[in-house]
Design a protein that fits this description.
Elements lengths: L1 E8 L3 E3 L9 H11 L3 E5 H5 L9 E5 L11 E3 L2 H7 L6 E5 L1 H7 L5 E7 L7 E2 L8 E9 L9 E8 L1
Parallel strand pairs: 1-6, 1-7, 3-4, 3-6, 4-5
Antiparallel strand pairs: 2-8, 7-10, 9-10
Length: 160
């Protein structure tokens, strides 16, 4: 199963200058809980935005750079090759960025989306979730608090 996991604002903003534009600790916890012990597929820029590889996950990096290397990671040049590297009988996660989400949308079986209830200036965006293709099966609203500056919702979609 291929699952796209992302946090996007109401205007579909993912981030700016290869960084998130909000800080939601509960979203980080959810991301960690869902992706630990799984394959995670990402673009090179997303990988390079991490201080180090994420622990207890197998990283599959998509890049057009033919000589790109990342120690302990699988490097490929297409979304199709990235998916081929993942175990077929396990859930694997697409974790970004914007271009990779667009490329992965036709292959995804599920979307785990954190909707940040605000709009932000951004240069990377999550693709449209077309209602004729996807069914919302869960939505869990969370109010802002001392650790979260914005209201947000955890949403789960499955392909129809």
């Amino acid at each position: 199963m291929i699952t796209m996991i992302a946090a996007a604002a109401e205007n579909k903003a993912l981030g700016k200058d290869n960084q998130l534009v909000w800080h939601l600790p509960n979203d980080f916890k959810r991301f960690k809980n869902l992706t630990t012990a799984h394959y995670i597929i990402m673009g090179r820029k997303t990988f390079e935005s991490f201080p180090k590889p994420l622990p207890n996950r197998t990283h599959v990096i998509i890049t057009r750079q033919s000589d790109y290397q990342a120690e302990g990671c699988i490097v490929v040049d297409s979304i199709e090759k990235a998916i081929e590297k993942c175990p077929k009988n396990e859930e694997s996660f697409i974790i970004g960025g914007g271009e990779i989400y667009k490329l992965a949308m036709p292959y995804a079986d599920k979307i785990e989306l954190t909707v940040v209830h605000h709009s932000f200036e951004a240069d990377a965006f999550f693709p449209e979730i077309k209602p004729e293709e996807w069914k919302l099966i869960n939505s869990d609203f969370q109010s802002k608090d001392e650790k979260h500056l914005y209201d947000y919702s955890f949403e789960t979609y499955i392909r129809k």
